[in-house]
Amino acid sequence: MASLPSTPRRRRWAALLGVSALVATGGGFLAPSAAAQVNAAQAVDFPTHCVPPPISGIPPIDGTTSAEITVDNTTPKVGDTVTVTYTVTKPAAGNPVDLALPADIMTPTGKVTLGGAQPGSVTVAGPRKNPPVPGKAPFPAFSMTGTFTVTAPGSITLSPGDYNIHTSYIMELDTPCTVTNPPAPVSQTIVATEQPGANERSVRLGTASGKPGDTVTVTGAKFTPLADITVAGRAGAAETADTTTVKAGATGTFTAQLTVADKATTGVVAYEGTAWSDDKGAGPAAYTVVDDTPVPANSQKLTTAVAAGTLSMTQAGDSVQLTSVDFGKGGAATGDLHAATVKDFRGGPAGWSLTGKVTDFTGPGGRIDAGRLSWTPACATKAGSPSTCAAGSAGAVGTAGATLASTPNGAVTGGEFTAGAKVSLDVPAFTAPGAYSGVLTLTLT
């Protein structure tokens, strides 16, 4: 370890700076580790340039940092939140003076560099926690955590990035340490996949109208390859007598000829098997039967149409303040979710489900596990709605998620609904003081 001139001025500044006055440790740089294997965390070494606070009078320090990146989920889906932990097992610096430094004066922050399918960076932070550091001893290891949302499928690499050591000992000081030749070696690789989403099957008609007994060409896409497909007329939520069957091709597409004779037919659907399934069907595609029945003398025929709408959700706000708890006691931090309004104007047979999942709560003392958040859901149905919503079960939400409210499938579904919940976060008794926050995401399907 490099030594400092023993002068009264240098000793005075070293005593003021505490752990922010850094000195390089170790010898020459180690060769970079081999490329990280998919889904396997790997310790890496990389050259680092640290700049002590100017008040210290200590020149910049070049040393080697040893670190490792780990994640809570190595095979996420697009839309998932991944928790990242950046652990510096050997900082590029040590205590430059003979004076021992006290415990719990060091707060680290930093960045994790993302590459591959999702370039970018993740901000990470650690708690104000460290053991006492003897004089001239290496600085201890520390860990920092953060989260990011997966936005693209494929392999995503994670490398250690720049970090900063903030000290609170007599003075508030920062010592930034940067990667000398960025990016640092890859320490972790995760493989993200597409999030299974809503049913992507689709159906199209060659024409939107015809006389009773006319034939319409029906094409479909993204069905199960080689599946038996039923193509049928639809009058609202009920099927008409207009049906035919066809087999999907090797790519999941099909073409069918449907004779539409029933004057009640207002749309055409297609589904796998012999009975409608919201998960394996598509449509209805609008179709109008042009009734050519002669109008009696001195009469007028009046016609109208009801257009199908969409399934949508809005919420009354995006920030909820839970009650506070006392350090040493902990307990339940409670509150109420902002109401979510669901409007189902599709006019078909499918119900809906509103689910939620929450991230860990992060703060100055680390994190509070997402599994400690529970809720008691409630749901109300607007008068006149064809469907009736049901509240989900009371219990933990967590990262896996839980149901807030839903409606079942039926002959005729739809309406307006309001869902909400009372929430409670079980805070451990000796959680470090400060503000903690997590993100609860609602998904309507």
Automatic annotation (TrEMBL):
Signal peptide: which range, if any?
Answer: 1-36
Q: Which UniProt keywords apply?
A: Signal
UniProt keyword Signal present:
yes
> How is this protein named in the record?
Beta-xylosidase
